[in-house]
Prior knowledge:
Blueprint: H1 3-13, E1 17-19, E2 35-42, E3 45-61, E4 64-75, E5 85-93, E6 99-108, E7 111-120, E8 125-132, E9 137-145, H2 153-162, E10 173-180, E11 183-199, E12 202-211, E13 225-230, E14 237-244, E15 247-253
Antiparallel strand pairs: 1-10, 2-3, 2-15, 3-4, 4-5, 5-6, 6-7, 7-8, 8-9, 10-11, 11-12, 12-13, 13-14, 14-15
Amino acid sequence: MNRIRYIVISLLTFCCIGISGQPILDVHRLLLGETLNYKASWGFLNIGTATTKSDRRLYKIGQNVYCKIQLEGSTNGMARLFYLNDRWMSYIDIHNITTQKAYRKIREGRYKLDELTYFYPEQKKAEIWCLNYQTEKFQFRKVYKTPVNIRDVVAGFMMIRLMDLSKYNPGGRFVIDGFYEDTGYKIDVLMCGMEYVKTDRGKVLCYKVKPTVPKNKVFQDVNAVDVWINVNKPYQIVSIQARLILGNLWIEQI
């Protein structure tokens, strides 16, 4: 997997998540028409941006109601050595924040991928369709098994924001069942407490959480990531710091 894509996706979404046990959610914080913008910095360099958008209307598919949410990420000229321009779009059930259908458009250097995923949670499987660039039609690729309550990248981003973090005391932990592409793993998340974060718009009171990251050659160690989530607004992710082998990466809301 492209290392830069792995870092950006992991930090913004905690990968695709399904909380072990029954999570405490507040779906009333799911805001229609919301747009959040982020910048990514590597040391003193601004290397890219990311945006999340929720549609202004809801969609009914069968008996369920869904919110359409999109996440985009791209690098700029300072990061031309690892060019990235990716987009994820999902239809998410507003009651349990599970994914019905997801689309991702990947553009990284010369590599490109257009992929549709249909989720069948009751059958614990997902069906993958990929675009054939010669016929310009989607073709069936494969079916893979998924954990219970699995979510795609975009639903994972929303899930951590909708959890009621006020119910967790400093030192408390919860476990995330992670799943990205065809790999599953567990992530332990530590609640560190609350602290103020300095932003361009002033100081913001945030919950600070520390997720473990899968052991790899990108992060300094499994505890290399810190995430700050706004206490007063609808749990917007304010800032993320990752200590990497080649320096520190910051993702900050703008």
